[in-house]
Amino acid sequence: MENVVQKKRILSGIQPSGDLTLGSYLGAIKNWAALADEYDCYYMLADMHTITVRQVPADLRRHTLTQVAAYIASGLDPEKNVLFVQSHVPAHAQLGWVLDCYTMFGELSRMTQFKDKSAKNADNINAGLFTYPALMAADILLYQADLVPVGHDQKQHVEICRDIANRFNGIYGDVFKIPEPYIPQVGARVMSLTSPENKMSKSDRDQNGCVYMLEKPEDIMRKFKKAVTDSDACVRFDPAGKPGVSNLMQIYSVATGKSFETIEAEFDGRGYGDFKKAVGESVVELLRPIREETERLLADKAYLESVYRAGAEKASYVANRTVSKVYKKVGFLAR
Ligand code: TYM
């Protein structure tokens, strides 16, 4: 008999709530492309998550389509990876509801992202914002994912997903695979260029702190030239004492593959001006082919449509099987 070894499965996603940032590229997407041969990969556009914060409908559609193109342009071959839009697979909403009923008020109240987002959107602290981690757990558990490659800020959400899955399995038997977070060594926490104590985020009020994946080279260079450093004039890795410089070193290290020691030696005795210019240029060169390819793909809407339609079909097949199993376990009468 043929010995078929089942590949481990990966699921991850990004919210198309705006233009993709350098943070989501370095913390997540950049690492995804390399996993395709070894794993069975599902990458989602988490559009259902975005409406926990008010969106402009036409912008959400545009960002979603652009993000499909950017996924492909970043090296996610649609033949090797399942690329799909969350709202195209109704199983996410179906399992999301079930998991809401196995997720505790107390544990949701402790989520850092909920606290941050409710502070930022004080006029719209809706129930979806609160139960968001249960929907994210559904995203992961539907695919029986082994690994969830994310940046550091999503670690807590993967942990609550594990807790929910263990609770459910404890009652009904082994229904869900318990997933592990998969967080890169460098690049998992890209910080704002203007306030390096905060993570780089598209919702940042100061747009100079956030670099976008598809941004024009001159804008990227301007932002890096303005990046906050310190008065030390020494390129040295020390996240606590030198957060701005250390953040730039991390970005440069991921963009060029150079170690921190090599970077320190490269800029020994040179000012921050040279350093910031070099970091900016490395990011421009890293992103240039992706931007150009994204623009090329966006001109071919029919192709993009064929990719996300095929993705939804493949994703639904796997996700529906989990929903059927769960519905049976909790006692819903079969149709
Ligand atoms: P989102 O859309 O905020 O971010 C997408 C991915 O990018 C990473 N990331 C960063 N990494 C390093 N530095 C940064 N400054 C930075 N900013 C963002 C995030 O850690 C994430 O990996 N809830 C998720 C989306 C989601 C999801 C899922 C992820 C929905 N369902 C299931 C994994 C599995 C979110 O809002 O990520």
Question: How does this model look, in words?
Answer:
This protein has 335 residues and is mainly alpha-helical. It folds into two domains: 9-183 and 301-330, HUPs (Rossmann fold), CATH 3.40.50.620; 207-295, Tyrosyl-Transfer RNA Synthetase, CATH 1.10.240.10. Helices cover 53% and strands 7% of the residues. The chain is built from 13 helices and five strands. The strands form two sheets. The protein has a three-stranded parallel β-sheet. Strand 1 (8-14), helix 1 (22-32) and strand 2 (39-45) form a beta-alpha-beta unit. Helix 4 packs across helix 7, helix 4 packs parallel to helix 13 (301-330) and helix 7 (127-141) crosses helix 8. The chain is globular and about 70 Å long. The two termini are 37 Å apart. The mean pLDDT is 95. The structure holds tryptophanyl-5'AMP. The site of tryptophanyl-5'AMP has 26 residues, from strand 1, helix 1 and helix 7.
Helix content: 40-55%
Count helical runs. Answer: 13
Shape-level CATH architecture of the largest domain = 3-Layer(aba) Sandwich
How much of the polypeptide forms β-strand, as a percent range? Answer: 5-15%
In which order are the strands of the major sheet placed? 1-2-3
Poorly predicted sequence stretches spanning 5 or more consecutive residues? none
Count of β-strands: 5
What name is given to the CATH topology of the largest domain? Rossmann fold
List cofactors, ions and other ligands.
tryptophanyl-5'AMP
The overall pLDDT average reads 95
Shape: globular
Rg is 21 Å
CATH class of the largest domain: Alpha Beta
Give the total of domains: 2
The CATH superfamily of the largest domain is HUPs
Distance between the termini: 37 Å
Classify the secondary structure makeup into a structural class: mainly alpha
Please give the largest β-sheet: 3 strands, parallel
Q: What's the order of the H and E elements? A: EHEHHEHHHHEHEHHHHH
